[in-house]
Amino acid sequence: MRQLVTPVTDPLKGEVEEVDHNSQTTERQPVNPLEECRRRPIIMATLTIILLVSTVFALGDAMKRPKTPCERARDAVINGPPGVYVPTCDCQGEYTPEQHWGSTGSSWCVTRTGQKILGTETPPGTASVKCACSGSRR
C-alpha cells in the first residue's frame, strides 16, 4: 500500500490518500492535526521572507542617491546620435578633471561643475594637458 498526497487547496488543509493497487476504491484520511500545526510556522516564515525580499527590491531604487549633474548630462546623451560628446563621471558622480570627446579626439580640463577651463583644450593628435586633481579644482 502506498500513500499519495493530494494537491493542497488550502495552505493548512490536505488529505492523504491510501491506494490499494488490488482494489478500485480509495480511502481518504485527514492530515494529522499535529502535522498541520508543524506546517503553519514554516508557511508563515516562508511568506514573511518572501514579503521582506520583495519589499527590499521594491524600495531598492527609491533608496539610491539622486543623480548628479554629470550623471544626468551623461545619461541624457549616452544613447544619442553617434559622435556626440558624452561627459565622463567618476564613481561619486562628479565630472572627472579631464574630459575627452572621442569622435573628435580633443580633450580639455573642467571644473567640478563641468565647465571647460579656458586654455586647456588640446586639438586632436596632440598630447592632452594634465588636469589638476579634483582636490585643487575650481
UniProtKB/TrEMBL annotation:
Q: Which CDD domains match?
A: TY
Q: Which residues cross the membrane?
A: 42-59
What the entry lists under PROSITE patterns is as follows: THYROGLOBULIN_1_1 (PS00484), THYROGLOBULIN_1_2 (PS51162)
Looking up Pfam families in the UniProt record yields: Thyroglobulin_1
> Taking the first listed entry, what is the main subcellular location of this protein, grouped into a coarse class?
secreted
What SMART domains does its record include? Answer: TY
- Gene3D superfamilies for this protein: Thyroglobulin type-1
Localization per Swiss-Prot or TrEMBL: Secreted
Keywords, A to Z? Disulfide bond, Membrane, Repeat, Secreted, Transmembrane, Transmembrane helix
Which example biological process does GO assign this protein? cell-matrix adhesion
Supply the name of the protein.
Answer: Thyroglobulin type-1 domain-containing protein
Q: Which organism is it from?
A: Salmo trutta (Brown trout)
Taxonomy, top ranks, is:
Eukaryota, Metazoa, Chordata, Craniata, Vertebrata
